[in-house]
């Protein structure tokens, strides 16, 4: 009873927050609850019964195992519970969606009681989260002549688990709710500073937008009970910045449908819209939940008689509203004809892109990975029975253009495609299943990934995956009570599942809080690889990497596959020569600025950026590919030269070896396997058998951007432009300004060097600048705090070996201590240098933050409202993004530098070795 009484105490505590009892995942607690159910005299019996039926998490949780075992006893008649008949017990098993419930259903279906076996078989026909061991049991029973096994397999071969589901409605009525104007970051839907609560869905749901917005949504639902609430980004894109499954979960929690009456706070089928559609990475997450993402196009550029856009005094296009989506507007989605109409049925916009055959399947099944599992199950059943599987699911969309060459991403997808027509060459627009080579899970989404794995009944990583890593970087800066409660549990789960983990559950090696993207960049040892990672900055400079939600990451870990269309590509190349005082970060910013100047709109959005940057090693090139998440690109590919790629692979091998030396290798020998693959790839390149990945000369691109390095003559800053009169222009990454714009007078309150955008070279630049300033001024005096968080421990170790860390320590007022890590977030900063633990730090915004209303100059990637810095009533917080030299100088001066000050500060410092690749 002690655990149950603790649970009751927790329930009382949650009541004070307006929360329901937390869903149960602990088998020991559920065992006590089962004991209470069997005690007719217990005063707790009624509540225990409700907890058992309605509040127990499904899948592979230990509670699910206890629940499935008890239901089995009821079905077989070993135990009698008046409120749970055998038929109801079978229904409850059907809602547990895999794991122990499948084992119980198989036990009964393949058992000796013929009548009950048939009933269990009928329930099995509705299930699709089966793994090899489950399918092999069915196959073996079928071969032994079991009639129920035959019946179930025949149903699977027909995919009745899918075909017998209700079709998507022909018409869906919606009522609009404008979540905000301009681009809406997933931070608004699921703030990073609330990351610790993401796995507690009801609690986390309270952080979506504002309490007032939540109340308004509830009121809309009450006023329109026959409609679904569509959350809208007016004059912007919905879901920029990250995939954030927790954001979609929150939207679904407030506006979606309940997945099961027996599983609390798991909703699906949200409807979201944006004037400029849905961010590509967020759209994938919407698919995971069987949701709908609408490109509204309700504001268009006004054009003059010459057909060109009319510009306002600021040089921005003037927009004209074609139809209103003001909060409370009733609209209809005509699914049959793929149109959005007004209440009277008048067409407003074509929405065919939201209702492709593949997306319609996700909506019908309630999730995208239900389709992935379903296809595998149907194929297995048909092969076992020796029959041809009927065409039930939408076939792979295979687009092949005669005589057209392949872009880099098209080549990678052709190599990794599964189940396509043999010998057929696929071009952009094709929609296919692909094998995944590398998978990454980060620590603030990892808890949800673990939940997703449990829900889909997965217990071990797919053998198709070459390597997978669980990071600890997003919770690295503060080892507080929340992290202490969540992270060890996560690391243990992932380590047991088969991932290499940043922390060792057994404590044998030092905790590695390295930024996940840097680790994934190192363990990617094939430029033809596909990488899936639980973070929008999964943007490797080898292979093609897609940031993804926790569900897609779980699916990749469990199956070694993902399903997605082959995106179009935009080619980015360079001409001219860099000035010696420019940093490579300025090239990154200039790419965005010059692209917008050339095309007038963001041609990168939703596409692959194929960047021809092959003279840079993987670490430096990553600065560009990492930034492509802010360019709203789907992904990026770095086209490297042979010798540069070989050198990058050698560096990767050495870092993987360091991981092995630290004791991070697992029983499967994953890390050594990656070194072996790197050696094989190097041999292929050196022999000429398979050179570094490159597109065909006759590949077709959506657009080609040529960046003129001669035009980059001063440092560039990405400015959130927080006071722009047009709110849709605020907090985008499209406002790129030269440092001279600020006239050397803009006050800077805090500087930050860190996140995935920096590498070892940035740390050495910092050290050299401090030495130069002391040499010229006699001392180094900070007029604003400077927070430095190296991305990895490898970098720290190398800086120590080369003497640069001693330089940094000389000027630092704080140095991280892994023996006694910070247990609370810093709330104020002094004007000095802080050497923080490797990890994300301020960039994530979930632990450390700048003071409210500050102007921050940072090397990081995030300038969204409230991420790095929050607003005050008097002043909006600003996160300006710049190169390391600009950040350093801004904290020394306490303001933005002038060009003369900047040039003087970087004299003699080798900022970058980048030069355009020479055509052969």
TrEMBL record:
Gene Ontology MF terms: 2-methylisocitrate dehydratase activity; 4 iron, 4 sulfur cluster binding; aconitate hydratase activity; metal ion binding
Q: Which UniProt keywords apply?
A: Iron, Iron-sulfur, Lyase, Metal-binding
Listed EC numbers: 4.2.1.3, 4.2.1.99
Its BP terms in the Gene Ontology are:
propionate catabolic process, 2-methylcitrate cycle; tricarboxylic acid cycle
- The residue ranges of the Aconitase B HEAT-like domain are 6-162
Where the record annotates domain Aconitase/3-isopropylmalate dehydratase large subunit alpha/beta/alpha, the positions are 411-894
Do the record's keywords include Iron-sulfur? Answer: yes
GO CC aspect terms: cytosol
- Enumerate the InterPro entries for this protein: Acnase/IPM_dHydase_lsu_aba_1/3, Acoase/IPM_deHydtase_lsu_aba, Aconitase/3IPM_dehydase_swvl, Aconitase/IPM_isomerase, Aconitase_4Fe-4S_dom, Aconitase_B_HEAT-like_dom, Aconitase_B_HEAT-like_dom_sf, Aconitase_B_swivel
- Which stretches make up the Aconitase B swivel domain? 178-406
Q: Which PANTHER family match?
A: ACONITATE HYDRATASE B
Q: What is this protein identified as? A: Bifunctional aconitate hydratase 2/2-methylisocitrate dehydratase
Q: Which organism is it from?
A: Sphingobium terrigena
């Amino acid at each position: 009873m002690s655990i149950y009484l603790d649970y009751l105490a927790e329930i009382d505590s949650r009541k004070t927050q307006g929360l329901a009892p937390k869903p149960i995942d602990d088998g020991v607690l559920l065992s006590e609850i089962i004991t209470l159910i069997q005690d007719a005299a217990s005063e707790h019996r009624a509540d225990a019964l409700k907890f058992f039926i309605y509040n127990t998490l499904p899948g592979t949780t230990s509670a699910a195992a206890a629940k499935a075992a008890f239901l089995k006893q009821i079905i077989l008649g070993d135990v009698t519970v008046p409120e749970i008949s055998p038929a109801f017990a079978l229904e409850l098993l059907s809602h547990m969606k895999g794991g122990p419930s499948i084992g119980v259903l198989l036990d009964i279906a393949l058992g000796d009681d013929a009548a009950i076996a048939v009933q269990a078989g009928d329930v099995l026909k509705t299930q699709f989260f089966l793994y090899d061991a489950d399918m092999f049991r069915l196959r073996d029973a079928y071969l032994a002549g079991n009639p129920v096994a035959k019946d179930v397999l025949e149903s699977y071969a027909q995919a009745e688990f899918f075909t017998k589901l209700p079709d998507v409605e022909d018409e869906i009525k919606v009522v609009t709710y404008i979540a905000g104007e301009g681009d809406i970051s997933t931070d608004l839907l699921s703030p990073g500073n609330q990351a610790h609560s993401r796995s507690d869905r009801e609690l986390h749901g309270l952080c979506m937008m504002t309490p007032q917005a939540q109340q308004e949504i509830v009121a809309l639902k009450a006023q329109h009970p026959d409609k679904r609430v569509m959350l809208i980004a007016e004059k912007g894109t919905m879901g920029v910045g990250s995939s954030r499954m927790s954001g979609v979960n929150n939207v679904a929690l407030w506006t979606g449908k309940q997945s099961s009456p027996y599983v609390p706070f798991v909703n699906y089928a949200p409807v979201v819209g944006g004037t400029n559609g849905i961010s590509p990475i967020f759209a994938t997450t919407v698919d995971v939940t069987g949701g709908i993402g609408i490109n509204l196009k309700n504001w268009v550029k006004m054009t003059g008689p010459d057909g060109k856009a009319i510009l306002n005094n600021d040089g921005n296009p003037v927009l004209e509203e074609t139809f209103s989506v003001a909060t409370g507007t009733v609209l209809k989605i005509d699914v049959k004809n793929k149109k959005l109409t007004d209440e009277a049925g008048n067409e407003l916009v074509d929405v065919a892109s939201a209702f492709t055959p593949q997306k319609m399947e996700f909506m019908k099944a309630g999730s995208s990975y239900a389709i992935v599992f379903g296809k595998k199950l149907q194929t297995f059943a048909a092969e076992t029975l020796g029959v041809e599987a009927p065409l039930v699911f939408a076939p792979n969309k295979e687009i092949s253009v005669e005589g057209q060459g392949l872009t880099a991403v098209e080549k990678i997808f052709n190599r990794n495609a599964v189940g396509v027509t043999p010998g057929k060459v696929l071009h952009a627009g094709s929609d296919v299943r692909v094998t995944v080579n590398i998978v990454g899970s980060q620590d603030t989404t990892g808890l949800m990934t673990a939940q997703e794995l449990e829900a889909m009944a997965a217990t071990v990583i797919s053998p198709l995956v070459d390597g997978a890593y669980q990071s600890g970087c997003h919770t690295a800066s503060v080892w507080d009570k929340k992290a202490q409660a969540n992270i060890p549990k996560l690391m243990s789960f992932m380590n047991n599942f088969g991932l290499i983990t940043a922390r060792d559950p057994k404590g044998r090696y030092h905790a590695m809080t390295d930024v996940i993207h840097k680790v994934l960049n190192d363990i990617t040892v094939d430029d033809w690889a596909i990488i899936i990672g639980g973070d929008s900055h999964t943007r490797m400079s080898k292979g093609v990497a897609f940031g993804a939600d926790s569900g897609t990451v779980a699916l990749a870990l469990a199956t070694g596959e993902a399903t997605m269309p082959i995106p179009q590509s935009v080619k980015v190349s360079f001409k001219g020569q860099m000035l010696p005082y420019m940093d490579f970060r300025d090239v990154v910013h200039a790419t965005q600025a010059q692209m917008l100047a050339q095309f007038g709109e963001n041609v990168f959005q939703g596409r692959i950026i194929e960047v021809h940057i092959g003279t840079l090693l993987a670490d430096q090139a990553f600065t560009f590919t990492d930034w492509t998440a802010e360019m709203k690109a789907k992904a990026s590919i770095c086209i490297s030269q042979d010798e540069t790629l070989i050198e990058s692979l050698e560096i990767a091998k050495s870092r993987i070896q360091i991981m092995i030396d630290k004791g991070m290798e697992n029983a499967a020998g994953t890390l050594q396997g990656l070194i072996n693959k790197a050696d094989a790839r190097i041999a292929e390149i050196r022999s000429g058998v398979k050179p570094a990945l490159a597109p065909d000369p006759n590949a077709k691109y959506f657009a080609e951007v040529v960046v003129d390095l001669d035009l980059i003559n001063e440092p560039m800053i990405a400015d959130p432009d927080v006071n722009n009169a047009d709110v849709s222009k605020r907090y985008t990454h499209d406002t790129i300004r030269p440092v001279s714009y600020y006239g050397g007078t803009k006050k800077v309150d805090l500087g930050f060097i860190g996140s995935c955008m920096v590498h070892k070279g940035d740390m050495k630049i910092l050290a050299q600048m401090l030495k130069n300033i002391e040499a010229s001024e006699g001392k180094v005096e900070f007029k604003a705090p400077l927070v430095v968080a190296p991305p990895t421990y490898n970098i720290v170790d190398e800086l120590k070996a080369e003497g640069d860390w001693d330089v940094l320590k000389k000027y630092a007022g704080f140095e991280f201590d892994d023996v006694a890590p910070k247990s609370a977030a810093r709330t104020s900063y002094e004007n000095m240098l802080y050497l923080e633990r490797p990890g994300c730090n301020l960039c994530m915004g979930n632990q450390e933050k700048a003071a409210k209303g500050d102007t921050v100059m940072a090397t990081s990637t995030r300038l969204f409202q409230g991420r790095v810095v929050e607003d005050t009533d008097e002043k909006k917080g600003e996160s300006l993004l710049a190169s390391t030299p600009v950040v350093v100088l801004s904290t020394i001066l306490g303001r933005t530098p002038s060009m003369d000050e900047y040039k003087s500060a970087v004299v003699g410092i080798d900022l970058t070795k980048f030069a355009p690749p020479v055509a052969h």
